[in-house]
Write a structure and sequence with these properties.
single chain; 14-stranded antiparallel beta sheet
Length: 346
């Protein structure tokens, strides 16, 4: 597999395929971005057509939380939510700013900091690669007395990160770097309570995506993180999707401990007219067969003509199985996680 330091090569083209390690920088300034008619795009198109988003999520038997930052050039968007499992109580904070005002997302997934600031509200996502080749992702949310999060997860040197870049439409590309099944340390405090994330046995997942995505982009996604079973000392995490990174290479995979197992393309079945309907995630070769029952949801809906979003991130429980390429089966029982139904026009 490839291991480029920078995503864009000396000819202005991205390296495509699965990478053995994440790239150090998404050097979009060196990209030779073209129009669909293969003419060199102007500075305005090159700037405004580049999209990026980053997401940090945590799952435990007490709470589920998620934080996303998205820079789609015309608008910057940030949301945070906390869901308490014991009673289904939920708190949500979401903000949008014109021209991504107050937002600065890094293009360095190993050594960079992404920030959002609106008045007294601050969000930081920081990424660090140390001399022992350990990666650390951290999330800091400071919303005064309403919400404070100080959380981090660490990838050991041996952890196999999912990193790839795929072509998109006729002239675009998307880089995606994802992790799951990582222990989360730190604390979270809001109206729903004060939580020690390590004591709560919280596991996390992270998404770092950027590129020249389709003008109208759609995806479904499923993810979970937790212990493989009550008897196992190995965490297990899932990342599968369709709609974005599926041209030639697939991001679909699951982790057992530090080891990444690739998965084939998957299919999502659910009732889009009923947000509370059950989901089914399967693959044709039966490596993936999961049923999902919703419990809570974060959603956004906006139709502003030139821009639109219809977004649902639904959390609940998975049951079923995953099978490795060499036939090792992992039964999934009441594993908390997410599914997502997303449409964006940007």
């Amino acid at each position: 597999m490839l291991r480029p330091y920078s995503l864009i090569n000396s000819h202005g083209k991205p390296y495509l395929g699965r990478f053995s390690q994440p790239v150090n920088e998404i050097n979009v300034e060196n990209a030779d971005y073209r129009t669909p008619m293969n003419k060199r795009a102007g500075a305005w198109k090159k700037h405004f057509n580049f999209k990026r988003f980053q997401y940090f999520g945590g799952i435990s038997d007490e709470i589920i939380f998620g934080c996303a930052l998205a820079d789609v050039r015309y608008v910057g968007a940030a949301f945070v939510y906390v869901y308490r499992l014991s009673d289904g109580a939920m708190k949500t904070w979401q903000y949008k700013t014109p021209l991504a005002f107050g937002m600065n997302l890094t293009n360095r997934p190993d050594n960079g900091v992404s920030t959002f600031k609106l008045g007294q509200k601050k969000i930081n996502m920081a990424y660090a690669l140390n001399s022992q080749e350990e990666r650390r992702k951290s999330l800091s949310v400071e919303f005064g007395t309403s919400l404070n999060i100080d959380a981090s997860m660490r990838e050991s040197k041996d952890f196999e990160t999912m990193a790839l870049c795929t072509p998109t439409a006729v002239n675009g590309w998307v880089y995606a770097q994802k992790t799951a099944a990582l222990k989360v340390n730190g604390s979270l405090e809001c109206e729903l309570g004060k939580f020690d994330l390590e004591q709560a046995k919280c596991f996390g997942h992270h998404d770092f995506s950027a590129g020249y995505m389709r003008r109208e982009t759609f995806w479904n996604w499923a993810c979970f993180s937790g212990m493989a079973s009550k008897q196992s000392s190995q965490p297990i995490g899932l990342n599968v999707s369709w709609g974005v990174n599926e041209t030639g290479f697939s991001e679909n995979c699951f982790w057992v401990g530090d080891i990444l197992h690739t998965l084939p393309q998957v299919q999502f079945k659910f009732d889009r007219d009923n947000s509370h309907s059950n989901w089914r995630v399967t693959s044709e070769n039966a490596q993936v067969d999961l049923a999902f029952v919703p419990e809570g949801m974060h959603k956004e809906h906006l139709n502003a003509g030139v821009m639109a979003t219809n977004f649902k991130q639904i959390f609940g429980r998975f049951n079923g199985h995953l099978i490795t390429a060499d036939g090792q089966r992992y039964d999934i029982e009441n594993q908390y996680g997410f599914v997502e139904d997303q449409y964006s026009k940007w």
